[in-house]
Write a structure and sequence with these properties.
The protein has 84 residues and is mainly alpha-helical. It has two domains: 1-26, no CATH class; 34-83, no CATH class. The protein has helices spanning 14-24, 34-40, 51-63, 72-76; strands spanning 67-68, 82-83. β1, α4 and β2 (82-83) form a beta-alpha-beta unit. It is elongated. The two termini are 24 Å apart.
């Protein structure tokens, strides 16, 4: 989306640019597993309804990692440790 909006620019395809970025940095791309997908659907109704927010939150929860979140509903969730 940042490429489409012109906020990020890189030569070649978006896929090749993202691969170059992850190869050159410490960024790790986590696979979307069935466990993460299922957990994303199990958050309570007061958690943000956005599917991307749920997948990111579920990934953090499955990996036992804190979530960097500005959304108050995510910060208030007892299911996740949040930073920010």
């Amino acid at each position: 989306m940042l490429f489409d909006a012109g906020r990020l620019r890189a030569p070649g395809t978006i896929e090749s640019s993202l691969r170059s970025l992850t190869d050159a940095t410490a960024v790790v791309v986590q696979e979307l597993t069935p466990e993460i997908a299922a957990l994303a659907t199990a958050f309570p109704v007061d958690y943000p309804p956005d599917p991307a927010a749920r997948i990111i939150g579920a990934t953090a929860r499955c990996l036992g990692l804190p979530l960097v979140a500005r959304d108050q509903r995510q910060q208030n969730s007892s299911l996740l440790k949040t930073i920010w």
